[in-house]
């Protein structure tokens, strides 16, 4: 079979994997980042200090180091607790998408895919935390005082009163952050996660023609440019809503 | 009578009188983290990471000059390993500095082009900025690396990999710097341009003498933040074999079989470099804020991370 016939298939698989990496790490870093951001403004000083250290450290080291570190460190971490590769059947987690069965989750226990996701979350959640913190600090003091005097606990007023208000102002900065996250998934090719750049590099090695990188770039643009435009629109809508109110 | 009743929106400063510091609106979480507190937090994290991953203290010994073979302190091991790492720091900083300095002329052109009233200037600038902002840097690096002619005259001066990474970062950061500069130009008072044009300066004279100097002054903190981004992005060079800081770390841990410990040390070096630059950027902003009395030209807020690594 000619290799050229396989190129669309390879690119499709790479694209699907890039999307899964992006979606999973976006959702997880939103969760982790919100928790860290709330910790960062908590009145309990040790918690705020640790959160601050987390944000400062992981924001200032390259993503590639985080990826290599998690890739090398996760097996060691799990081995400390006696978890070896035989325990978990990752077959359960594999995905069947229109005939293409994704095999990335049953490579082995500490599969490269999850190392990539964890590293992406560790790198992006500090940025999310900073956005959450800025949004929370922009809310007027009276909101917290009012909800506390109505009988909410600190966490309860955070969850029911302050965070819902904060998420509105967070949408535009988070959008550009997730656009960066989609591009940053390309670094997972360094630990042999077969996503778009990895497949493009592989195809380039077989065909010796760099045009495949232009195709891969166009595929990235299909996702990142509409995201940017959508964020611009949303920003305009949200600010208009605030003026009308 | 009415003057006394309606408070002035921007009260004029009384010469000689102490001005009250401008307070932000009361927030539910007003208190800022002190610098010692964030330093303490970082120390806690730096202790926690080796603890969580169960790093072996013995494997750190190479970095204080103790020979892992016979556990004896040897000064030449200490100097040679840190000299080896220092060369990586120099390569990283040089690549990032060359990229950001050479990108500035292009960025000025793109920023002015995007603000231009002529469509044939504006649309190519918009296209360049939007496309290169939205592409992964790794893709640019691979493309340039594979597409580059075998014997460029420049490449004999620096290595092929250094040239590739610096060029890719230059192309990428020009798009981002153009957006930073555009925000800075837009944030300036329109009266500056109008006054300069009314005095008879041409468009280019206005830009060169009036607008760009003020813009650069205002966006300097943001440009420093962009430089830290580039410092992190140069680590992508290790994927095509550029011998910079991360690649030197990988060479070290392949020799001494201590991947986690070496990566941790390299990460701390990157962290120190970026943390110092970040503090400088914050200090400049703070000083501006203190010196600005009334209606200061506010520097545009730092853009969110629009970068690769």
* CA distance, first residue to last residue of chain B: 61 Å
Broad structural category of chain B: mainly alpha
**N-to-C series of helices and strands of chain B:** HHHHHHHHHH
Please report the number of helical segments of chain A.
8
Number of strands of chain B: 0
Major beta sheet, strand line-up of chain A: 1-2
What ranges of chain A have pLDDT less than 50 throughout 5 or more consecutive residues?
86-93, 104-110
Quaternary form: heterodimer
The radius of gyration computed from the alpha-carbon positions of chain A, rounded to a whole number of angstroms, is 21 Å
Share in β-strands of chain B: under 5%
Structural class of chain A: mainly alpha
Mean pLDDT of chain A: 82
Radius of gyration of chain B: 25 Å
End-to-end gap of chain A: 64 Å
Helix percentage of chain B: 55-70%
Taken from the alpha-carbon principal axes, the silhouette of chain A is globular
Spans of chain B of 5+ residues with little confidence (pLDDT < 50)? 1-21, 294-309
Give the fraction of residues assigned to helices of chain A: over 70%
Report the largest inter-chain contact.
A-B, 64 and 59 residues
The number of E-state strands of chain A comes to 2
Explained architecture:
The complex is a heterodimer of chains A (about 240) and B (about 300). With about 240 residues, chain A is mostly helical. Chain A contains 8 helices and 2 strands. In chain A, a hairpin with a 2-residue loop joins β1 (about 95) and β2 (about 100). In chain A, α1 (about 5-40) packs antiparallel against α2, α2 (about 45-60) crosses α4 and α4 (about 110-135) packs across α6 (about 155-185). Chains A and B meet through α2, α3, α4, α5 and α6 of A and α2, α4, α5, α8 and α10 of B.
């Amino acid at each position: 079979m000619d290799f050229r016939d396989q190129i669309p298939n390879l690119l499709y698989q790479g694209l699907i994997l890039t999307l899964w990496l992006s979606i999973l790490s976006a959702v997880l870093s939103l969760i982790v980042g919100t928790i860290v951001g709330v910790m960062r403004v908590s009145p309990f000083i040790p918690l705020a200090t640790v959160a601050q250290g987390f944000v400062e450290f992981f924001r200032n080291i390259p993503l590639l180091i985080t990826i290599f570190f998690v890739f090398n460190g996760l097996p060691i971490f799990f081995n400390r607790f006696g978890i070896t590769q035989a325990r978990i059947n990752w077959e359960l987690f594999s995905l069947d998408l229109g005939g293409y069965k994704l095999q990335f989750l049953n490579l082995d226990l500490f599969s490269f895919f999850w190392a990539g996701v964890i590293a992406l979350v560790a790198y992006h959640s500090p940025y999310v935390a900073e956005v959450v913190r800025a949004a929370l600090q922009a809310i007027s003091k009276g909101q917290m005082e009012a909800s506390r005097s109505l009988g909410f606990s600190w966490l309860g007023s955070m969850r029911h009163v302050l965070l819902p208000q904060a998420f509105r102002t967070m949408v535009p900065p988070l959008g550009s952050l997730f656009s960066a996250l989609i591009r940053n998934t390309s670094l997972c090719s360094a630990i042999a996660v077969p996503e778009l750049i990895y497949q493009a590099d592989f195809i380039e090695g077989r065909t010796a023609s760099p045009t495949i990188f232009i195709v891969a770039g166009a595929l990235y643009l299909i996702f990142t440019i509409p995201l940017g435009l959508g964020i611009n629109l949303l920003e305009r809508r949200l600010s208009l809503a605030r003026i009308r109110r | 009578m009415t003057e006394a009743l309606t408070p002035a929106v921007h009260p004029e400063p009384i010469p000689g009188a102490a001005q009250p510091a401008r307070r932000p609106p009361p927030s539910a979480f007003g208190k800022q983290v002190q610098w010692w507190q964030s330093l303490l937090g970082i120390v806690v994290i730096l202790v926690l990471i080796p603890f969580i991953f169960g790093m072996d203290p013995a494997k750190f010994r190479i970095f204080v000059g103790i020979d892992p073979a016979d556990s004896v302190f040897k000064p030449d091991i200490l100097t040679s390993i840190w000299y080896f790492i220092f060369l990586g720091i120099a390569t990283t900083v040089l690549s990032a500095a060359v990229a950001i300095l050479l990108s500035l002329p292009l960025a000025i052109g793109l920023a002015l082009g995007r603000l231009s009233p002529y469509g044939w200037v504006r649309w190519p600038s918009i296209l360049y900025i939007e496309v290169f902002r939205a592409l992964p840097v790794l893709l640019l690096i691979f493309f340039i690396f594979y597409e580059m002619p075998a014997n460029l005259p420049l490449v004999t001066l620096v290595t092929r990999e250094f040239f590739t990474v610096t060029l890719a970062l230059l192309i990428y950061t020009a798009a981002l710097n153009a957006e930073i500069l555009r925000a800075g130009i837009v944030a300036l008072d329109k009266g500056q341009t109008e006054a300069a044009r009314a005095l008879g300066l041409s468009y280019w004279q206005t830009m060169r003498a009036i607008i760009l100097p003020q813009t650069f002054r205002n966006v300097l903190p943001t440009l420093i933040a962009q430089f830290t981004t580039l410092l992190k992005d140069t680590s992508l060079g290790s994927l095509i074999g550029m011998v910079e800081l991360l690649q030197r770390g990988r060479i070290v841990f392949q020799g001494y079989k201590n991947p986690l410990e070496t990566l941790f040390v390299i990460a701390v070096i990157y962290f120190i470099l970026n943390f110092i630059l970040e503090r400088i950027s914050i200090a400049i902003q703070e000083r501006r804020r203190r010196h600005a009395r009334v209606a200061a030209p506010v520097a545009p807020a730092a853009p969110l991370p629009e970068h690769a690594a």
